[in-house]
């Protein structure tokens, strides 16, 4: 018997995935860290974005790796073929989409979280207490009651979906989770503005209510939801037998950063008995700035708020968040008894409400740690100042556009998003955006406003300065002149000097 045991042990003796030589591993790990820090510190020395060469892309069509590779060789491949062709949102010239720039502090926290390898689905351990502390901080910032609950998710798209599910369960009762939405569920209607993010429609789809059940209300001249039209549509739906249950207001619309009249929407929802949810993907964190927080008046009346710390909070991806006023309603939408999730009075399985009771995930990473490090290290005052600074830079870009006859401003600047164009046709402006991106000077994006193609600059990165705005404007004028003049140079210009 002992011989059998020894033979069995020898056959599985070397399956550990730990390094064989910890000193060698440590040296390479320090090199990785040093070079990553250098990359952040010297981010201005490289293009914002660069196209992926065909050969590099083809290299990632290789077969499944059956044999082991040297870690140094794997890192070399990453350094040469992955890192140079990332999205570019670390760069101060990245203004395409509402992507945060991250911080070196957040990067270190992510490394520490990976070292712990904690599962935040539940049980009694400190990583969950870190998440609970951030829930409490958010509750205080948004003036929610102590009974409020919150949870980290991948991003606001998921948080918005979860808010729809909480509102649906509240409207239909918890039995709907067992029996389905039934006839009552088929009559539910929700409301948002025509300027709302597309993930709201997608949430209605995934929730089983259907996109047709979402009424997209017209916006006013400031691109905010028309509250009078909203009220009228709710009345019409009630009259014909539908059951309104949810209004989703925007705190920072995707196209131009407009903030709905949250107080007026809150009052309407209270009168009509509707769930009031705020999609505050990036705009909700204006609460960190005393200068901008008044724009969010009424957000404290919401039943739920979705936001992303990885945008204006500058936390590395991903770090979405959902805050719910009534923690019990939140729990009733997701909690599910199971023997393997039973709670005990003591030991590792102790605790009452676990994060898995508040969302669909049983396995969850330690997203809270990088957020905790960011909030603790910089403080809300400094983060709020960075938020206000990005809005000031947007105003600076607005003045540059208004002062330049060759440029046209397409919408007033609300927060940090500027939509403008070169005074030419849509086709020329579409090419300008691609030209600038491929040049590496900057990375704007685009949208359509009132039937016109717009160059969209979303200023989120805490590293962005006036010089980066100037470089963008100069690039638009240069490429616009080439395109509209009919003389196109194939070679991209050298990187703008800062």
From TrEMBL:
Key words, A-Z: Aminotransferase, Decarboxylase, Lyase, Pyridoxal phosphate, Transferase
Protein origin, superkingdom: Bacteria
Nucleotide-binding found in the keyword field: no
Keyword Transferase (UniProt): yes
Cofactor: pyridoxal 5'-phosphate
GO molecular function: transaminase activity
InterPro entries: Aromatic_deC, PyrdxlP-dep_de-COase, PyrdxlP-dep_Trfase, PyrdxlP-dep_Trfase_major, PyrdxlP-dep_Trfase_small, Pyridoxal-P_BS
PANTHER family: GROUP II PYRIDOXAL-5-PHOSPHATE DECARBOXYLASE, MIP05841P
Family indicated by similarity: Belongs to the group II decarboxylase family.
Name of the featured protein: Aspartate aminotransferase family protein
Source organism per UniProt: Bradyrhizobium agreste
